[in-house]
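call fold(seq) -> tokens
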Amino acid sequence: MGNDLKNLHMRMDADVRLAAAAGGVARFLADAAGLENAAIVKLQSTVVAACTETFEHLTRKHPHLDLQFSRFSDRIEVALSHKGDASPTVGMDAAAGFSKSPSGSAAFVGVDRVQYETHGEEVVTRLTKYLGKGDRSVQ
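ret:
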């Protein structure tokens, strides 16, 4: 795998080892984009946490989490999608400033923007890390 990776799709079951693999992909993309080590580690941790928290929303009928990693010239996006429970990934309240994760820190501290949307039965949480200063917004 070279530094020219721009898009990657993963489908996983609720397994923390697979969440760690997703974090590794985010780390690779962030490193290839030239982010500083502290930002890379935060992005990696955020992706792992988002996967782990989304696992709680998977059901027997819809047991898979899909991730789409995309690298653009100005940002990295990670879209987590699943079917079923129409509530946002746990931590969305924390990202919006309404609550904290059990550890006391916001679940999405490693990204600049969090978007949540539904498409019928599909729930999508999109994490964006800007490669510049970023707009630091939550939607």
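Residues 77 and 128 are 4 Å apart (CA to CA).
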